[in-house]
Amino acid sequence: MALSSxxxxxxxxxxxxxxxxxxLVLLIIFMVTAPMLQQGIKVNLPxxxxxxxxxxxxxxxxxxxxxxxxxxxxxxYTIDELGATLKALQAxxxxxxxxxKADKDVPYGFVVRVMSEIKAAxxxxxxxxxxxxxxx
Length: 136
Prior knowledge:
- This protein is α/β, with parallel strands linked by helices.
- It has a domain at 47-132: Nucleotidyltransferase, domain 5 (2-Layer Sandwich).
- Helices cover 34% and strands 18% of the residues.
- It has helices spanning 17-37, 79-90, 108-120; strands at 47-48, 60-64, 70-72, 75-77, 97-102, 125-128, 131-132.
- The strands form 2 sheets. It has a 5-stranded mixed sheet.
- It is elongated, with a radius of gyration of 27 Å.
């Protein structure tokens, strides 16, 4: 039995099942990794009773870890580099305000030293970041 050219039909439909499978796998990957990308530097903050601060613009966040490593946003700096870096970052800002997150196990003297470097850099307002106080 010979096939004539009139009986041949080409299929122009795309099989979407593999495409849907790949898209679902990508969706799951993004759902799992998205919360991990939004986390900052791990710091065990002290608890205090205070109101939250409303922020109109992105403020500088200075973080001191338990190992006494200083981060400006997510970039590490030494205590000697801190003053000059803050001066450069705040030179063109009208509102000179930063937030300080310090691990509760960092020695008080080191936190005061960092605060004095912040003040020497010309920062007008310093906000201390804490966790809300939980009733026991």
